[in-house]
Structures are given as structure tokens and as C-alpha cells.
Amino acid sequence: MFTSQGPTLRELAEQALTSVERGYDLLAPKFDHTPFRTPDRFLDATAAVLSRLGPFDAGLDVCCGTGAGLRALRTVCRAQVTGVDFSAGMLATAADQDRTRRAAEPSERNGDPGPEVHWVRGDALALPFAGAFDLAVSFGAFGHFLPAERPALFASVHRALRPGGVFAFPMGAPSPVTSPLHWALLGFDTVMRVRNRLRRPPFVMYYRTFPLGEVRADLEAAGFAVELYPLEEFGRRPDGSPRCRLVVGRRRD
């Protein structure tokens, strides 16, 4: 699962036994060499759908980590993109990587510097923005929020958006009970629940606490009109339903 540049098993154990924030501070330098970094195909599929829903001026990546999601935002936002995360280590790595990318791509931009990039340390449950963005995205972060926290999370994003602004994120279909992945994720969640009962501070990271029906209801309660877009790049299940969707909530006022 990990390259030789990724964290060792001992390092992962150390990170899992601390808090979420401290764990990601420790993991940050090696995060992009793990399977936890959102694959580019998810980012590109998301950007393809968003390009049809724009244009957008200002975009926000909620729980941006090392900044992978800005790959999607930069292609659909004209003025500025902002990454927000509560881990100082992840933000520092994101900023370093963005500087390296910009230095390596001047000829490809043909003199166009692209949207301005900003990095902000903040709590997704209380984002330090009000009506500042046309678009918000998030990738792979929702397992860090308990179901009871979803209303506050979605309300926080809603406040950060301008009227009519879009909140988008990809969601895979649940694995069938007969799939090894189903049991692997169930086992992971079980281990994390036991860990959190026995040790403080808790490390909140679950894979099976974000079902589409409940998520859609919470988005609508927060003031979003919700639409689902199939990401056909990932194919369809035997029953014809998409294996992956882009959930798009548009702020109602």
C-alpha cells in the first residue's frame, strides 16, 4: 500500500495513537506517498463536472491536507483558490509543494500565473469565512467528522459560500456485503472504535459513517439544493447505478 518514501508501520502507529491534528502534523511530509492522498482521477473527474456548472471566481478546498484538491480548483476558478485545514504540518507541506509546482511550470502557463493561492489554518466546523466563495470542494475528509457533527460542518460551508454557491464532493457507492472491501472497512472502523474507547484523545477516522441518504438530508437541512452527477469514468454497478457520484449542493437563499 505504501511506497518506500511513505511512512513506516511504526510511524503510522505513533500517528494513530495521538490526536487527529497531531497525527496529521507528523504524517504531512510523507502523506502524498500513501493511499490516503486523493487520486488524480477523482480530482479530474470532479473538475470535469464542475467545469459545466461554472464559471467560478473563488474556490475553497475544505480540509485541504497537502493541497491535492487544488488541482481541481485551479482548473475551474478564475481569481483565487484557498485551502483550509487545521493541521499546520499539512498546510506547510501544501505551501511548499505549490511553490515547487509554480516554479516548475512557468512555460506551461504562457505568462498566466493562474488563480491566486491562499492557505488558511482553521476548523471546518467553524470556517473563518462569510460569503467569500463561489465554490467549495472537499476530498476524503468526511470520515473525520462524526454523524452528529455533519449539520455544523455543512452549515459552516454554507456560510462560507455566496448566494448560489456550490459545494461539491465525490462519493463512492457502498461496497456489497460480499466484497472483501466491505469487511476490511468494517474491521477498520471497529478497531478505531475500540481504540477510541481505550485511549484519549480520540482519533476520529471512520469509513462507514457517511451514507448518501443521511448526507443528502443534512445538506438540505443546512440550506442546499442537492443534485447528483454520475462520474462515468468509474463505471457502473451490476444494477446500473454509478460506482461514484459527485454530490453537488447549491446554496439556497
TrEMBL record:
**Its Gene Ontology molecular function terms?**
methyltransferase activity
Record bears the keyword ATP-binding? no
What ranges does the record list as Basic and acidic residues composition bias?
97-111
Region Disordered, residue ranges: 97-116
Q: What are the Methyltransferase domain coordinates in residue numbering?
A: 60-165
Keywords of the record = Methyltransferase, Transferase
Query: Which BP terms does GO give this entry?
Result: methylation
What InterPro entries does the annotation carry? Answer: Methyltransf_25, SAM-dependent_MTases_sf
Query: Which domain of life does this protein belong to?
Result: Bacteria
Instruction: Please tell me whether the keyword Chaperone is annotated for this protein.
Output: no
What's the protein here called? Methyltransferase domain-containing protein
**What is the source species?**
Streptomyces boluensis
